[in-house]
Amino acid sequence: xxxxxxxxxxxxxxxxxxxxxxxxxxxxxxxxxxxxxxxxxxxxxxxxxxxxxxxxxxxxxxxxxxxxxxxxxxxxxxxxxxxxxxxxxxxxxxxxxxxxxxxxxxxxxxxxxxxxxxxxxxxxxxxxxxxxxxxxxxxxxxxxxxxxxxxxxxxxxxxxxxxxxxxxxxxxxxxxxxxxxxx
Length: 183
Fold this sequence. Notes:
Number of strands: 0
Helix content: over 70%
């Protein structure tokens, strides 16, 4: 998916909820962290996670044009402003990616490569706070799937967009898990 296609999805009537949710979450993040450059960057990260949620919910795709640059920017910001967290985020991002990649291979399509890259991106952005983020995401996705199965709207062979749940975990981690500063 290219940037133009991602923008069309965000403007799609089915994703009209995304802009107000992103704005509200950005404000809550900025207020929660206090007025600073770091709070502004974390607010922007929340907007990115909401955009990824909207795109994946609408298309079942998580575009590399968003996940990969976001991960790279998080690493570069740490390199420039918060070097003592650089090893943490490199380890967290790499381990998150590798574990999810192994799970994707083992489940043979249980999670997609977009989800794997999103998990890696979350690690590079959140550092070790990626652990509670992934726990929340996996739990929320499991509860949602179970609800669909119980209500007979899905079967064990059905698939769901998993990125929104991973993004939800990332959103919660930014607010409640004290990830390392970005700037």
